[in-house]
Structure formats: C-alpha cells, structure tokens
Amino acid sequence: MTDHRILVIGDSYMTAEVFTRAFAQREIPVDTATMTIAEPTWDASTIHEFEGDPAEVARLAQGYDVVAFHAAPFTADVLAALPGLRLLGCARGGPVNVDLAAAREWGVRVTTTPGKNADAVADLTIGFLISIVRNVPASLRDVDERVAEGRPLAESTFEGARWFGREVKGLRLGLIGYGNVARLVAARARALGATIAAYDPYVDPATVTDATIVSDLDALLAGSDVVSVHARATADNRHLIGAEQIARMPQGSFLINTARESLVDEQALLDGLRSGHLAGVALDVNEPDGPWRDLVAQPNLILTPHLAGATHQTLARGADMLAAEIERFLAGGELRWER
C-alpha cells in the first residue's frame, strides 16, 4: 500500500471528512483536499453534474495515482495532465462527471458506488406513497391557509371527511424499472399490504420471485393504482411517461418520480392533475424543465429538491464502498464496480 499515493477530494455535498473516516477504518493513508465551488468557464459538453474547476482538479491531483471523489470534474484535459493516474473512485452510481472515453484512452480505471443511496430513495418513495394516497399535500395547504387567516385548524370533529384517502393495503403498485431502488420499494410496500408489479425490459422474469414482471409498459400503467418511476435516464427514454401513458392509467391514480425528471413530461403531469385523472403526484427533481409554477400551484402535488438520496448513511456507505474498492486495488484484487 505504501507504493501508492491516494488523494480524496471533498465537495459541498460529500466532504473530505466523510471519505477520510472510511479510509481510516481500513488503515489506508490518504491526503485530502476540498474543491472550490466555481461556475464553469470551459467546455463541459463531455461531463455533467460536477462541482469545481478542472484546472484545480489537475493541480490538486498532481503526483497521485489514486483519487477518490464525488463531484470533481475529470475531463479529458485533466486526465491528460495526470499521466501517473491509475484509478479514479467516483462515489456515485454513474460517473457522469468523468470523461470515460478519455479515461480509457489514458489507461485510467474508473470505479463507482452503485446502489449507495438505494435505501434512502426507497424510504422517501414510500413516504411519498403514503402522503399522496392520504391527501396529505392538500390538507397541509389547507392548514397553512387557516393559520394565515387566523381560523381554527379544524372547525368540526368530522373535519377529516374532507380528506378521505386510501390505505396502502390492497393498492396495486406499478414500478417502472426493477433495479436496486425499486426492489427495496417493493419490499417496503409489500410489508404494508400492497401488491407489486414491475416493468423492466432488462430483467429476466424468471429471476424475480417477489414481484410480477410484466412485458408491456401499457399493461403496467393500466393495472396500477400508483405508478412509481425508477428507471435510469437515457437519451432514448426522455418523457417515458407522457400524455399517452398517463391516459392509460386508471382515473384517480397516482404517480411518483424519485428517479430523473427527464423521464416524465411535466406538462402532461399538470394536465393530468388539472383534469382530475391523476389524484396526486410526488416528484423529487433537480433540473426542472416544464410548467413548474403551475405545477407547484396544484394542491395534490409533493415537490422536493432532489433530496431522495441525501442521508448521512448514504454518504458513509458510498465512502466505505470506495475505500473497499481501493483496498482491493492496492492488494491487486478484482474491482467489484469498475466501469
């Protein structure tokens, strides 16, 4: 291990201290640095969702052959400036802030931390599920209005009659995508009494025993009281859920998206809420691209700012996964999550 120099680069989301605790537990010596937040003034077309300036990364990582990080940008220019670099450990499920083609060209291995936030996202999805089927968003808005106007929060013992909802037990939950997060959502929802179906063309139904895998997205939509989106976003599945798909869902159904906002057409969501076809929607987004002012005005909408994976456990898990990967690298073993 002493033949390698290891740098960890912290950022505003995942600090250097989170990394160093994980490496210290494995007795792996590291140096630390923290990125400076900066607006990009350079070509960022080959990477996205990064924090910091590539020139700073190139300067910080000089002389290191292993770098562990979360949001630092590793462009082709950075990789070219670091001829001694051998391994990048990116604490994310997808290394979108790394130019993978350039890494391969320069012989730099890249490993990641898939599924580190799966439990956190699954928890929030279930929280969304319970909230929207029980009319919590609309009732909270009503409470806010009453408080602002100085009116009683409840004017009658039977005030709850305004907010009749549904119990999770007996709900038909349809999952789009059946990877790490969706499987945890399924387990939690099943424990509450929901029945589970999933659509995922990349999953062999014969390997799944805890959910009904359907081969047709339209069939999943038509047979679900609640649809929850967990697919990985690609260039080919933008607006996977649009007006046609929402129309196939039952009248008064619900939709949850804790994956990527590009998977759902926000205008179609707004139309579905306004018409009453959708009884409730919950979204956890970070790049709004649609009629957000009108959406936010809908009483039966939950909107959170991309916090599904934001737990202390997620950070610690990601750092430990990287520390384990780098430990294997130092010992000459196989990497589990190499890209």
UniProtKB/TrEMBL annotation:
NAD as a keyword of this entry, yes or no, is yes
Domain D-isomer specific 2-hydroxyacid dehydrogenase catalytic per the UniProt entry, residue ranges: 49-336
Domain of life, per lineage: Bacteria
Cite the InterPro entries for this sequence. D-iso_2-hydroxyacid_DH_PdxB (IPR050418), D-isomer_2_OHA_DH_cat_dom (IPR006139), D-isomer_DH_NAD-bd (IPR006140), NAD(P)-bd_dom_sf (IPR036291)
Q: Which UniProt keywords apply?
A: NAD, Oxidoreductase
Q: Name one Pfam family in it.
A: 2-Hacid_dh
UniProt domain D-isomer specific 2-hydroxyacid dehydrogenase NAD-binding: residue ranges? 129-308
Gene3D superfamilies hit by this protein: NAD(P)-binding Rossmann-like Domain
The family annotation for this protein states: Belongs to the D-isomer specific 2-hydroxyacid dehydrogenase family.
Query: What is the protein named?
Result: Hydroxyacid dehydrogenase
Q: Which organism is it from?
A: Microbacterium sufflavum
